[in-house]
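pasting HTH CENPB-type domain-containing protein for the record, 202 residues
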Amino acid sequence: MAPTELDGRRTGRPNTKQIKRMPKKHKNLYHTYEKKLHIINWRKEHSMESVIDTFFPGVAGDKRTTARTRDMHTPRVQGNGCGVGTRLSSDQFKASPSWMKGFMMRWGLAIRAETRSGQANVADGEKALAEFKTSIRKVIKDNRIVEVFNADQTGINYEYLPKQTMDKKGAKTVWIKVSGHDKDRVTAMPLADSKGTKYPEE
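structre below
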């Protein structure tokens, strides 16, 4: 028969090993909307130091300065945000770092380092190249140009260092002797014409 009274105890597997639950080590803090609004209004009339001392007295050391001086390194996105928010007054929207952080969290974005690069679409590149060739040929024909020269600047390193070298096995630090000019470069300007002649001629 089913029990006539509901059992108020927790359901689940019985505790056979007599292991107690670990006490919580962290304490969650919750701020109501009224308190957040009060902090925002306080910041409008006082400095950031006053806000931290008044509402967050336990914050000290690096935690006190890191969050306040953090730079998101996303001026382009913040600039776009300011462009979208032109219909709002400066008091309503400022594209602050906190807005930038919320924007990135909302869309699942993060600051990442570039690992690979390439063309988005090879077909579009070939189409643009064909259009460029057509426009150049039209300019040459319309202006009766006989010969076309092409020159460009490029950097030449004084010294190229290898990425790998031979050393003893197990060595944690590998030294490579250099002349001290590994970052110095000279500017060269190669020149060629439409006939395939390179200048200066050898």
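The two ends are 107 Å apart (CA to CA).
The longest strand covers residues 154-157.
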